Amino acid sequence: MNSNTGKWGVFPPICGLVFLVCAFANPARAEKQTLILPAPEPMYYLAIAPSAALSYRDSEYDSSLGGELHLLRNAQAQRWSILGLSVGATKFAAYDATRLHLDFYAGFRTLHDVPIGFALGPVVDIFRVGRTNVGFRSTVWAYAGISPFLRLTSTQGLSSPDNVEVEVGLTIPIPAFRW
């Protein structure tokens, strides 16, 4: 056995050389290098979402309960990271109609990683007496485990005047399936 290498062989001199190279490396040059990570794959969600809202229509307040089925795409690496659609129904306490809706969602993440966005879509109000109103609604929403929203809905029937409604409410999306 060579007396210069000892029982560890050439391992200690190589470790010392690696240490010296790392210790005296130019830190300014190391700061300029960036690590490029691949973007995470988009996630798709199917969620069931109960909702409750307080609405203001025709100088009167009303409450509503409903449910929605969401199909959403969450791609964190893209500017518009949340895209999707929702279908659902809402029943009002005083307004004698059931509202069916289809919404198209778009949203992005803020600096604090909180998704915010908007939804647009058609609505149909079905009354017990057989008449229907059709219209359009727009929603501004945020998501932080629960989803508060502010919504403006405009409907019009063949035999009724325009109906404009403002809603403030809360939706609780519960993920049912993710892929």
Question: What's the structural blueprint in terms of helices and strands?
Answer:
Elements: H1 11-23, H2 27-32, E1 43-57, E2 60-74, E3 82-92, E4 97-109, E5 115-127, E6 132-142, E7 147-157, E8 163-171, E9 174-178
Antiparallel strand pairs: 1-2, 1-8, 1-9, 2-3, 3-4, 4-5, 5-6, 6-7, 7-8
Largest sheet: 8 strands, antiparallel, barrel
H and E order: HHEEEEEEEEE
**Rg, alpha carbons:** 29 Å
Low-confidence regions = none
CATH classification class: Mainly Beta
The termini sit apart by 60 Å
By CATH, the architecture is named Beta Barrel
- The helix/strand class is mainly beta
Shape: elongated
Whole-number count of domains:
1
Helix content: 10-25%
The spatial strand order of the largest sheet comes to 1-2-3-4-5-6-7-8
- Find the count of extended strands (DSSP E, 2+ residues): 9
**SS field, number of helical segments:** 2
CATH topology: Porin
Please summarize what this structure is:
The chain is mostly beta strands and about 180 residues long. It has one domain: Porin (Beta Barrel). The protein contains two helices and nine strands, in the order H-H-E-E-E-E-E-E-E-E-E.
Which tags fit this structure?
eight-stranded antiparallel beta barrel; Porin; 58% strand; 179 residues
What do you see in this structure?
With 179 residues, the protein is mainly β. It has a single domain (43-178), classed as Porin. The protein contains two helices and nine strands. An eight-stranded antiparallel barrel has the order 1-2-3-4-5-6-7-8. β2 and β3 form a beta hairpin. The longest helix is centred in the N-terminal third of the chain and has 13 residues, at 11-23. The mean pLDDT is 85.
